[in-house]
Structure formats: C-alpha cells, structure tokens
Design brief:
This protein is an alpha+beta fold. The chain has 64 helices and 18 strands. Among the domains are: about 200 residues, no CATH class; about 140 residues, no CATH class; about 100 residues, Serine Threonine Protein Phosphatase 5, Tetratricopeptide repeat, CATH 1.25.40; about 70 residues, Serine Threonine Protein Phosphatase 5, Tetratricopeptide repeat, CATH 1.25.40.20. Helix 32 runs antiparallel to helix 33 and helix 54 packs parallel to helix 56. The radius of gyration is 42 Å and the shape is globular. This is Ankyrin repeat-containing protein, putative.
C-alpha cells in the first residue's frame, strides 16, 4: 500500500515486522480492551490486512481510548455478541432521571395504518416531528442509523409503535437543531404487517438516500470524548455500529452523515472526520470508512470489503443487504442463493482469483461460486471473467492437458471442505475427461516464472472450450506446465445442463419474462401498458426497449404515482444513454413531480455524479420547488461540489433566496462544506444576506461548529463578525451556546466585540455557555470578560442552574470568586420574569443545583409568575428526583397554584408522570376531588391507563363526580364528569374494564340521565357494551325514555352492537313507547345492515303499528335495498295503512322511482282508487314526477280502466288548475297524447281535449308549459 506524501516530513507506510504486528495485537486486546474479533475484522477489510495494525494502535499522549465491555471471551474470527438477537433488547432511556423514575412510553403517536398505507404506496415513510403524519417532501428530515444492542430499536414495543418519550425527544431535539421537519427511525418507520414490512425493508435505503442527513447513534461512540478527526476515525471503525451489516447499507446510501460523540457533540463525517487526513493512522481509518461513501457497489471486491468485517443477527439479512448495496431488485420470497446469483448477474464480472476457494459450490449454473457469496475473498486482480445470465463465466485461462502425467503426491488436500475432496480425488483419477485451468500470467503478475503454478482449477470437459468446475486444486510445490498448456484462450465454465445457452438468447428470455405484454410482437402500440413499460425500462436502463417503445408511438413522458416521467427514472438511476434517448425524443427535463422537483433538483439532492452536459443545458437552473428552493440550494446543502460548479457555469444565481430566505451560501455553511463555501465566495456570493431568522451564513457555521467555514466567511467579510440575527445573537453567541471553545477563541482572536452584548433574552455569550452546561467555554469567556456587575448575578446563576454547573453555582453562592456580593435575599426576590433559580432547577430537573440552592436557604414556598411553588413546576415536568428533594425539604404535598388551584398531583396526572404520581401518593397527596379537579377523572380523560390503575390502588373513589368542566371534547360535546362515563366517552376500553373491576356503578346515570350502557351504545363502542353486560348491565333494561339497548342500537345503525345484544338474549320484538320495533326503527332510519341482521334472526317482518308496516315506511323513504330485503323475507306488498295507502302508492307519491320499479317488478297492484279519490297517476301529475309516469306507461299500467278513473278524478279540472297551474296540466296532456297514439282510447281523447280547453280559458300555456311540450316533441302551433 503506497501513501501519498504531503510534504518532506510526512510519515510513509512501511511494512511492519511480525514483532510489531504482535505488539499491536497485544496493545489492542490486553491494554486497550478491544474485541479480538473486531480488531481482526478491521484489519481483514483493509488491502494491507494485519500490516495496518501497528499504525492503528499508535495511541498519542492524552488521546482517549475506550475498550469494548464484556468482550473478554471473544476470539479472532468470532465475537460472542455478533450472532445475538438484539431485536428484543429493552429500549433505552435517554434521561438520567429515568434510571430511578422511568418516563412513559410515547403513546397515540405514529399510527400504524398511516405507516402501512405510505409503505405500500412506496412513499417516503419519515414521520413529521409531531408523530401524527408522514413528512411531505420536499420538507427535509433526519434518518437515524443506530445499533439495536444499545436499546435504540423498537424492542418489545414494535407491534404498538411505541417508544420511550425521553429517547424520542432526544432525537427530535437533534432534528430540530439541524432544521429538519421529520425523522426516519426504523423503530417507528418499519410496519409490523408482513407484506408492508417486506416492502419497507426493500426500500429502507431510499429513506437514507433522501434524508437531509443521517445521524449515527452508537452508545460506544457516545462514550468517546471528541479529541480530533484521527481519534474519531479510530473510534468509528472500532465501534459496534461499524461492525453491523445494516449500518453498512445505511452509511453507503447516506449523502450526509453526522456522528454523535460524548456530551452530544455532533460532527460531520465528511467535513470534520474524513477530510484531509494528516497521518497514516488517520488515512487508514478514513479509507476504511470512505469505501462506503461511494454509494453503489460495482464490483465483487467492493461488496466483500464492505461486508467481510460486518455481521448481522440473521444470515439472510446479509444477502438482503448485499442486494440493496448492489441495487438489485428483491423478491421477498427469494432464497439467499437466488439473491447472490442476481447480484453476480448485476455486477457482471469476477476475478480469476475468486474462483479459487475451498468451499462447496452452488448446485446449478453458478457451480463455480461458493454457496455464500461472502465466502469469496477480496482479490488483488482485475475482474476479467464475464458472468453469464445462465450462471457460467467466460474469460481467458491457460488450458493444461495431460492431467495423468502429474504425480498424485503433489496435490495438497488440507483445509479443503470434506464434501469437495472426494470429488477432486475421483476427477484426478479420470484424466481423459478432466484437465486443469490456470490463471494467465498477465493476471498473476509473475511474468518471470510464468510456467510455474501452485494452484489450478480442476474441470470436466463438456464441449469445445466449455468446462464444468470440479474444484480448486492446490499443490505442495510449484508445477512446471511448460509444453503442456495452451492459451490463454477464452473458455466457459458452467454447469453441465447449460451447454448451448447463448447469453443474448438468455437475456431475451429474461426480458420476455419480465415484460409479458411487450412480447406479443416486436411492434407495439401506444397504450397505458406500454407507458408503464417505458417507465420500467427507463428505471432499469434498458435503452433498446426504450427506443422501441418510443419508435412505436409511446409518449415519452407518462407519469407514475409520484408524478415522475421516464426521464426522472433514467437520470436518478444513472442511466445516461437512456436519458439521452428520451431527451432526443422531446422529454422535458423541467417538468415537476409531486414534490415539485425537476430532474435537476433530484440530481443535486441525490449527489449524482457525471451529469451529462446535454441534460444540464436543457435544464432551467432557476426552477423553484414549493419551498422556493433551486437546484443550487440543494447541491450546496448536500455538499455536491461538481453540480455547484456546473450550475454556476450555467449562470445560476448564487444569491437566490428560498422561501426561508437562505442562499446557497447559507446551505453550504449549514453543511460545513468548505470547498463549496470557497467556490461560492469566488463567484460573488454575498456573505451578508440574512435569512428569515435574520441569520447570515456565518451564524450557521458558528452554530454547527464549522471552524474552517467560519474562517472563510470572516476572510470574505470581516465586518460581519458581529452581525446580529433576529434573536439578537451574533456568531459568537451561537458558538458559546453550543460550547465550541475553539470557535469562541477564533471569534475573539478575529476581533469580535460582542462579548458584552445581550441578546433579546438578555443573555450574553457567557450566559449561553453556562446555560448549555459548557463549563470550559464559560470559564474562557468569564476570564476574558473579567468581573461582572452585582446586578448580573441572578442571570449567571440562572444560566448555571440550567446548565447544571455545580461548581459554578457553588462559587456564586459561597466563594464569590467573581468578586460579587451575593445577597441571600436575592435568591427569593422577583426577577424580570419572576424565574427564580429554584424554579429553573425544578423545571430542568437539575437535582444537584436544587439541592445547593436549598442548602443555601432558597424558599420552597415562593411562587413564580404563574402562581406555582417549585414543587408544582417539578411535578409538571415529571422530575421525580427534584420532587422527592423538595418534599424532603418540607414542601406541602397538597399545595396548589394561586390561579386554577392545581395541585402537584393534578399536574403530574395530567402529564402522565407515573413515577411522580406514585411518589406524591406515598407522601400523602390527597385524592379527593376539588371543584373541577379530580385526579382519577383527569387520568381517564388523558388516556393514562397506568396512572388510573395507580390511583385506584391508592383508594381513589371510582364513582366520585367533579364539577362541570369548561373544557370541551371537540366542538359541541362536553366532557363527562363521572369516571366510568369519561372512560366510555374517550373509548378507553382497558380503563373501563379497570373501573368496573374496582366497583364502578353500572346504574348510576350521568348529568343527562343516561345509564352507562345507553351512553356506550351512543358512543358506538361494542367492546365497552360487552364489558358492561358482562358486569351486570341488563340487556333489556328500559331507559327513562322508554327505549331499550336493542332499540337504541337499531336507531343508531350499529349492527355489531345489535348482534351482541341479540347474542346476550335481547328481545327482538321489544317495542318503544311509540310501539315501534327494532325492525321498524332500523327500516325507518335506512340502516340496511341492521335490517338484514334482524331479518336473519327471525324478527316479524310485518309488525303493524298505527296501520303502517316496515315495508310501507321503506317505500316512503325510498330505501330500495331494504324494500328488496323485506320482500325477500315475505313482507306483504299490498298492506295498507289507515288511509288505504300501499307501499307502491307511498313510493309514487314521494317520487322514489327506483322503489316504484322494484315494487312493480315484484307484482304490486297499480290500478286502484284510494281514499279521497286519489290514485297513483293523479299524484304523479300533481307532484310533477314525469319519470315515474313514464315508468308506469312503459310497464303497461295505463289501461283504459285506469284512464277512466283518471277522467273521473279530473271531473272538476278548474279546482285542480287553481292548485296546480298550467305546467302540470300540460304534462298530463303530453302523457295522455302518447297513450292515445298507442291505444286510440276515446276516454283519453275526451279528457285531453277538455284539458286543452281549460288551458286556453286560463289564458293559454305558460312558458314553462311550452317548454314541457317541446321536450315531448309537441309543436307549439298545436295550442
């Protein structure tokens, strides 16, 4: 391995001696306590192997070193921890306070249905930070790459999608710090459903690729103090995170990566750790990590270098990871062997060296390949053998004949797999059909002794230049093959059954199997299937198929579900030739997909290399997405220097601002990309432009700790060093806020004058450093500032309390090291915001600070600006340790605030702080309701089931009510004030069960007089109804309204509850106070499912109440499907009500055409004159239901008898006209005219003439009447 010298004094790589390697191993394992297997895995993954160990183990003076705990039993080649299943490891707690008082799971977040829908739709599955919905691209999100053994996986909570609140809040805080709107974390983003889970795993890498950055979280790394980049490299390659297979994939796919170290110091992997290695040790570590920063794996060596040093809990995972690294499509049902074979087909080439191994091979066409691809070794030679679709390999070999002339004792059989040795021995005894293949001298590199070999492939002759591999032969001593070999010549090594398989023919078969719709003929027609095929072909880079489809009329730009065209697919997947064809055919690179990005946006974000000039020239560099981002913003954000240079050369504006007011220089400063910052500044990027927060790029560089970027920005604009942002902070303030001592020193050296400047909150850099808990940075600023004024004491004390700086607090309170006089009364005096130090300690959970303040006499009873003593503040925020401390110092456990009378118990219950609730109850907190405050009721309303159980165990009254609550559930429904009703209202099934077990009354009514079962049915909760019935509620209980549960469920249309009640023995024929049965009520309400259920259960189909049957009610309301159900069940189709109305007449009179049709088809009688001389046709005319009239005529229900009845009804036409006007009369005339043409009825003619006379007497037809006539093809002259 040769290392490039940086100057004359740079160290050079020299091959170490065996004693140096041995000493390095001793240091690593015995002195440093590193895992033996991990040390060997790191060495194995480097081309120089064990020779790198002496360099890696060169520990410098004062450099930190952390070993691997509990790895004493590990050996070289095997780690005791590597094969363990860590998926069930309990999830970790981030907060130290959780060790004694664990926080609660974050429940009712990350809905599984939403996740499954997004996954199956193949959308991004990052959650918005509120945990309620998926992130909407192009909003940025953070992906998390972590180690499950640390407890950062889902653990036992996978199925519920729940995580520890403190851990999620920790990750959420980091996402917010880096301006991300969402999080992708497998613990909450991989669904449990098998089908969705398979899709999610196959697409997992896409989320890392699309994320703004990937956060590396490893508890081992979080124990390493940030020292410098060299140490960080060493820590990373030795970390458990770097040893796992899945994290290798995540690292490979991530474009920007940040790593957390001790004290939550976060560094950029590329800019802060890998860039500019200054030593061989740093360079070795940087190379090992950088091997995975290239993205797609393109050679077998690439794959082996990545995965040889890594392990997983499951062997199949390695195959899946390999496929995803190689970007090979995955079938969830594919075997590991099939996956490895597809990878080899995709990569397409292997080295001669990689056919030499001592393992059993695959049993089919890949008979030369080990059963696991990972059993191959990294080859130092170029891959010259081409892999065929059938599995064979083609390439140059030296063919060695006369196998029988080779003495048998020269063969070396040691270490060869026991299943392979017999095959080799038998083949050697058959020299007529077997021969040897040796690597060409140009491959081995040994030109001087080219005819001496020490290994060869033993093969069986199948055909001319076609052989089947038996195995690898190794020789005890070099064999001279001069005079017995030919070549090198191209030979094919394949399985015996694959002779004659041509590569092109095989390729066509594969293509045919994947595109069945395209193989009918080689001519295609433009249709939707071909558009889908074009999208597929563009994604796969099949430019021949793309050209064929376009030539045969398929449009060049169909869109997929994400709004992307074939050009998007070709460019994003790196298929340049395919993209060129699409562009030549007119594809527009400036169309936008669903996230409002053009192809150029994707190229810039995904860091795609080698973008064709032809594409760039056609792209609009100024195109903006919905966030106002141009390609130059995204390229700068991702550190894509190549695209930045091309965009600027094409005239992109470096000072264009997105909707957040940021320029490309802001994004480059945010990303820490020194080279891009330098390049943008050289192209006149303005370093003084402020974003929507008032920040210039220097603010961002200071906030995220990029020293070299800060230097470039100060050099470009030295007068901006004290620029104030919208919060009144200068870059020095922000550097102090994150505790970056190096940057603070740099700003001071460069002349920053804002040391004494207060921001909008009244805090100077000194206060901000103290608030963050950065004592070293604070003392630096303290030293530069000198003594502060006495009036500033409270600020510094507040800040030190927030940062939990125990020594600083002690000095301020006792030692006066700042030459300040501390008036003890000042601790209790009002500040501007009345934020007393003890309240600050209570809010932040600073137990040590609180103890110091109490020891110095801080009052536990003084209230803050919200009328709360410190105990209530600590209870609100769930800091059990501080609560316990305050109680020990005499705080009143039942103290309330001055405004709303909340107690500490009320607040702890409201915020679901179970550990605080338990502590307060142990100290005698009152459970008795006070006005609107009822701890049990509030716990139920907030869904805190565990707290409910705790309160009940401690004697809370399960039937106690509280006063009316002003809070509302939604817009109209008030909150229930009885515990059981509150549980029902909020559908807390487990809580209701718990309440019933603890004696909740099933008969006590709420303020509206409803019983629990009545209210449960009203809320539509079947499970709770069942619970109530099992606990004594009567299935046929009669409410004060006269209704029963069954009648109520039928009215509300709840088939599941109806079924439950009937199963529990409810009377199906029970009637309410209006004598209505459940069938009648459900029919009247139109609840088809309930009607069907009741009929199946055998209810009376024709109960008559007030002369009206269910069928008549269904007809009146036009419930056609219910009518059909009733008729099928035997309902009387001619049943009449008290006035003689039948179902048909009811349907006609209410204008329900479909119901009329069903009844007529079922045999309903039509020719009847009903009470008061009313018949169907008269009703039609009176109400204007022309469509029903036509239906009656079409069905043949207007015979002469019917018409005569109609004439009789029209014996007083003037009375009808007074009511109806001329338009209905004309409708009747038109209908009669049609009927007269068909029948020639004299009665019809007489009636029609009579009506025409009436119309004229009234002054002629109205305009509406004339329009009616035209609709019926009646000439207006007829009138």
């Amino acid at each position: 391995m040769a290392y490039t010298e940086k100057d004359d004094e740079s160290e050079q790589f020299l091959t170490p001696s065996y004693s140096e390697i041995s000493e390095a191993v001793r240091k690593a394992t015995n002195e440093y306590g590193l895992c033996r297997d991990r040390v060997w895995a790191v060495a194995r993954s480097h081309p120089q192997k064990e020779n790198v160990l002496p360099y890696l183990m060169q520990r410098r003076v004062e450099e930190p070193m952390n070993g691997h705990r509990d790895h004493d039993q590990c050996e070289f080649g095997f780690c005791e921890h590597s094969q363990l299943d860590f998926t069930k490891v309990a999830q970790r707690h981030e907060s130290k306070a959780c060790a004694d008082y664990p926080c609660k799971l974050l429940r009712n977040h990350f809905p599984r249905a939403t996740l499954e829908e997004a996954t199956k739709s193949k959308k991004l599955t990052a959650w918005a930070l509120n945990g309620r919905s998926m992130i909407k691209p192009p909003l940025p999100f953070m992906a998390i790459s972590h180690v499950w053994s640390d407890g950062t996986g889902a653990g036992a909570n996978w199925s519920r999608g729940e995580v520890n609140r403190c851990l999620y809040d920790y990750f959420k805080g980091i996402a917010e710090r880096f301006q991300c709107h969402g999080i992708w974390w497998d613990a909450i983003c991989i669904p449990e459903d098998k089908a969705a889970r398979s899709i999610a795993i196959n697409r997992m890498h896409v989320n890392y690729e699309e994320a703004r950055f990937t956060l590396v979280h490893d508890c081992y790394l979080r124990e390493w103090e940030w020292f410098d980049a060299e140490t960080a490299c060493f820590a990373i390659i030795m970390s458990p995170w770097f040893s796992r297979g899945w994290t290798a994939l995540e690292l490979a796919q991530s474009r920007k990566v940040k790593v957390i170290f001790k004290d939550s110091v976060i560094k950029d992997l590329d800019e802060d750790i890998l860039a500019n290695p200054q030593s061989i040790r740093h360079q070795i570590g940087s190379e090992l990590i950088s091997n995975l920063r290239q993205g797609t794996v393109t050679t077998v060596n690439d794959l082996l270098q990545v995965l040889h040093s890594r392990s997983t809990s499951w062997r199949r995972d390695m195959a899946i990871i390999s496929a995803l690294l190689a970007k090979v499509p995955l079938d969830s049902n594919a075997s590991q062997k099939k996956i490895y074979q597809d990878i080899l087909r995709k990569i397409g080439r292997v080295s001669h060296d990689q056919l030499f191994h001592k393992s059993p091979t695959m049993s089919d066409g890949f008979g030369w390949c080990p059963a696991s691809l990972l059993d191959m070794h990294i080859s130092p030679t170029e891959p010259m053998l081409r892999v065929l679709e059938s599995g064979g390999v083609v390439g140059p070999w030296r063919v060695i004949h006369r196998l029988g002339d080779i003495p048998p004792e020269i063969y070396h059989w040691k270490d060869i797999h026991a299943m392979v040795v017999p095959k080799l021995r038998l083949a050697v005894q058959d020299p007529d059909n077997h021969l040897l293949l040796a690597e060409p001298a140009t491959v081995t590199g040994f030109q001087e002794n080219a005819d001496l070999i020490n290994r060869a492939l033993l093969v069986k002759r199948l055909d001319d230049s076609v052989y089947q591999l038996v195995g690898s032969l190794y020789l005890q001593s070099p064999l001279d093959i001069s005079g017995r070999n030919e070549g090198p010549v191209d030979v094919t090594i394949c399985h015996g059954n694959d002779i004659g398989n041509d590569l092109d023919e095989t390729h066509n078969k594969v293509k045919s199997s994947r595109q069945p719709n395209l193989q009918k003929q080689r001519t295609v027609s433009p249709d939707s299937n071909n558009e889908e095929a074009l999208l597929w072909a563009a994604e796969k880079g099949d430019h021949d198929l793309v050209q064929l489809l376009l030539q045969n009329g398929t449009h060049h730009s169909p869109r997929d579900g994400e709004g992307q065209t074939p050009l998007f697919h070709a460019v994003i997947n790196g298929h340049k030739e395919t993209a060129k064809i699409l562009l030549e055919q007119g594809a527009n690179p400036n169309v936008k997909d669903n996230r409002s990005w053009t192809v150029l946006h994707h190229v810039s974000w995904l860091y795609l290399d080698g973008v064709e000039v032809d594409l760039l020239e056609r792209c609009d560099c100024d195109s903006e997405d919905r966030l106002g981002q141009r390609a130059i913003h995204l390229a700068a954000d991702r550190g894509n220097q190549e695209i930045i240079a091309q965009l600027l050369s094409r005239g992109a504006n470096p000072n264009a601002q997105c909707d957040y007011g940021q320029t490309a220089l802001h994004r480059a400063a945010f990303a820490g990309s020194v080279s891009i910052v330098r390049h943008l500044l050289s192209k006149n990027a303005n370093p003084k432009i402020q974003d929507f927060l008032g920040q210039i790029p220097m603010h961002l560089a200071a906030k995220y700790g990029y020293k070299e970027v800060v230097k470039q920005l100060i050099k470009a604009s030295p007068d901006a060093i004290d620029r104030v942002d919208g919060q009144g902070c200068t870059p020095l303030h922000l550097a102090a806020q994150v505790g970056d001592k190096v940057l603070v020193q740099l700003f001071l050296e460069k002349g920053a004058t804002s040391l004494g400047l207060s921001n909008n909150e009244g805090w100077r850099p000194l206060h901000l450093a103290a608030e963050g808990g950065y004592e070293t940075t604070m003392r630096l600023l303290q030293e530069v500032e000198g003594n502060a004024s006495c009036s500033d004491t409270w600020k510094l004390l507040h800040a030190a309390v927030k940062g939990d700086l125990e020594d600083i607090i002690r000095e301020l309170l006792r030692e006066n090291s700042m030459d300040l006089y501390i008036n003890p009364a000042e601790l209790h005096a009002d500040s501007r915001q009345r934020r007393l130090p003890l309240h600050v300690a209570a809010e932040r959970g600073r137990e040590r600070a609180a103890r110091l303040l109490l020891q110095e006499g801080a009052s536990i009873s003084v209230i803050d600006d919200y009328g709360r003593p410190a105990l209530l503040v600590a209870a609100t925020h769930g800091h059990a340790g501080v609560v316990k401390l305050l109680l020990e110092y005499g705080a009143d456990v039942n103290a309330t605030d001055c405004w709303e009378m909340y107690s500490a118990l009320d607040l702890a219950v409201d915020h679901d702080h179970e550990s605080v609730v338990r502590l307060l109850l142990e100290r005698g907190a009152s459970l008795k309701p006070r006005g609107t405050h009822n701890p049990l009721l509030n716990a139920i309303r907030n869904g805190h089931r565990d707290v409910v159980e705790l309160l009940l165990k401690n004697g809370s009254d399960v039937n106690a009510t509280s006063g009316p609550s002003s809070r509302q559930l939604g817009a109209t429904e008030p909150l229930e004030n009885l515990p059981l009703f509150a549980g029902i209202q909020h559908r807390q099934i487990e809580t209701v069960e718990l309440l019933l077990q603890n004696g909740a009354s099933i008969t006590k009514t709420n303020s509206n007089g409803k019983e629990p079962i009545e209210y449960a049915i009203h809320m539509g909760c079947e499970e709770i109804v069942n619970l109530l019935l099992e606990n004594g509620a009567k299935v046929d209980a009669e409410y004060t309204s006269g209704w029963t549960p069954l009648l109520q469920a039928a009215f509300l249309g709840s088939p599941n509850i109806v079924r439950l009640l009937l199963a529990k023995g409810a009377n199906i024929e029970v009637e309410n106070n209006l004598k209505r049965t459940s069938l009648y009520i459900s029919v009247h309400q139109g609840h088809k499912d309930v009607v069907e259920l009741l009929l199946q259960k055998g209810c009376n189909v024709d109960p008559i109440r007030d002369g009206e049957t269910p069928l008549l009610s269904a007809a009146k309301h036009g419930h056609t499907e219910i009518i059909m159900l009733l008729l099928k069940s035997g309902a009387d189709i001619e049943a009449q009500d008290a006035v003689g109305e039948t179902p048909l007449f009811a349907a006609i009179s209410h204008g329900h055409k479909d119901a009329v049709k069903v009844l007529l088809d079922s045999g309903a009688a039509c020719h009847v004159i009903y009470n008061f001389g009313v018949n169907p046709l008269s009703t039609i005319i009176q109400n204007g239901h022309e469509d029903i009239a036509k239906l009656l005529i079409e069905k043949g229900h207007c015979d002469p008898g019917f018409i005569e009845a109609l004439v009789l009804w029209w014996s007083t036409p003037f009375a009808k006209i007074v009511v109806m006007g001329t338009a209905p009369l004309l409708l009747l005339i038109c209908l009669l005219l049609e009927f007269w043409f068909e029948t020639g009825s004299t009665a019809v003619l007489c009636l029609m003439l009579c009506l025409i006379v009436v119309v004229h007497v009234l002054g002629g037809p109205s305009k509406d009447a004339l329009r009616e006539g035209e609709d019926h093809d009646i000439d207006p002259a007829l009138w």
